[in-house]
């Protein structure tokens, strides 16, 4: 698809200027001032911000198996509404994504839909049994795999995790860790995260594997990550919008890891400012009202992530918008080896049109996601997604 976007405030991780952007055959072809093209679809955005679309390093689409909570179509539509064109999906589906069959199913359904690009994680241990990693061998030449994860559960056995890291290193896969020491779950959720974070960093140091810590929420876990980086460990981490926007004393919404204290939030913000955080991951976790009542942890996140992060990080003066673009586009794209994330010639023509001055009131009734589970209901944030364009095609218009 070819499309010329005129009069845009073009922003990515290292650019910020008023100009035009031309996408040809689905890829960014030209960017500059006063670009003229004949016979192409032209849209004048009248000074609105155009950024690379967002990439989510962490989401749950519940397909196959729990499609009453979400399916690949509704999850993708939610992603597009939130300005996302790429998502990394976790494997806690039914069946669990430990086989080629499940991987094929997700990838085929996603490409038939043609909405967002999906990276489906294969689980570290087969069917989350915590012990078996032989299935990973069957994926060794599968170019679709960039990352493996036992998100939702975690890998309790340290030796198994070490062996999995060795396999991941050999294949240049990222190990995405849900850090939770089960012995402490329900007893001390802070210790549960901290201990496992320390263990995984230690194992990554020994094995040289590329480790990505999911949804980091405590000050101590973040400190271990910073220390690990200083020590040369190949570790990156993500922070969720909810762990930077909420504190336990005000809104203790059930999610795993839990909403933390003010001190933790302040430390996460400092880590973001100092460049210790690699990306924003939503941990989009749709549940029905009934399942939430029964205690299911998690919240939907794709449709609220940008306004929350823009308000809490940029409006509140923690970082500049270019840095936010790095956290929401460039770095997660790099993690998942997607040809996206910057306004650079040759990259996928995936951009989002934003009205940064527009206040949005969160209303779950308007969500495209089947999940309405959000602690942000009724809250107001700045930054509305007006349009999401993927490979030069307008796939969402607000
Ligand atoms: O809150 C959470 N929800 N944390 C997880 O680790 C899993 C997720 C889910 O799948 O619902
Ligand atoms: Zn998790
Ligand atoms: Zn998750």
| Distance between the first and last residues' Cα | 20 Å
Measured on Cα atoms, how large is the radius of gyration? 20 Å
Number of strands: 16
Average pLDDT taken over every residue: 98
CATH superfamily of the largest domain: Metal-dependent hydrolases
Q: Helix fraction?
A: 25-40%
Tell me which ligands are bound. Answer: (4S)-2,6-dioxohexahydropyrimidine-4-carboxylic acid, zinc ion
Quaternary structure type: single chain
* Biggest sheet record: 8 strands, mixed
Task: Specify the CATH class of the largest domain.
Answer: Alpha Beta
**Strand portion:** 15-25%
Query: In sequence order, what are the helices and strands, one letter per element?
Result: EEEEEEHEHEEHEHEHEHHEHHHEEE
What is the architecture of the largest domain at the second tier of CATH? Alpha-Beta Barrel
Shape: globular
Number of helices: 10
* Domain tally: 2
| Overall SS class | alpha/beta
Low-confidence stretches: none
CATH topology value of the largest domain: TIM Barrel
SSE blueprint and pairings:
Blueprint: E1 3-11, E2 16-24, E3 27-32, E4 41-44, E5 49-52, E6 54-59, H1 72-81, E7 84-89, H2 100-113, E8 117-120, E9 147-149, H3 158-171, E10 174-177, H4 189-207, E11 210-213, H5 219-230, E12 235-239, H6 241-245, H7 262-274, E13 279-280, H8 289-293, H9 305-315, H10 321-335, E14 351-361, E15 380-390, E16 393-397
Helix pairs in contact: 3-4, 4-5
Bound molecules: (4S)-2,6-dioxohexahydropyrimidine-4-carboxylic acid and zinc ion (2 copies).
Can you put this structure into words, describing what you see?
The chain is of the alpha/beta class and 398 residues long. It folds into two domains: 3-50 and 349-397, Urease, subunit C, domain 1 (Roll); 54-335, Metal-dependent hydrolases (TIM Barrel). 30% of the residues lie in helices and 23% in strands. The chain has ten helices and 16 strands. It has helices spanning 72-81, 100-113, 158-171, 189-207, 219-230, 241-245, 262-274, 289-293, 305-315, 321-335; strands spanning 3-11, 16-24, 27-32, 41-44, 49-52, 54-59, 84-89, 117-120, 147-149, 174-177, 210-213, 235-239, 279-280, 351-361, 380-390, 393-397. Strands 1, 2, 3, 4, 5, 14, 15 and 16 form an eight-stranded mixed beta sheet that branches. The protein has a five-stranded parallel beta sheet with strand order 9-10-11-12-13. It has a three-stranded parallel beta sheet with strand order 6-7-8. Strand 6 (54-59), helix 1 and strand 7 (84-89) form a beta-alpha-beta unit. Helix 3 packs across helix 4 (189-207) and helix 4 runs parallel beside helix 5. The radius of gyration is 20 Å and the shape is globular. The protein starts with a strand and ends with a strand.
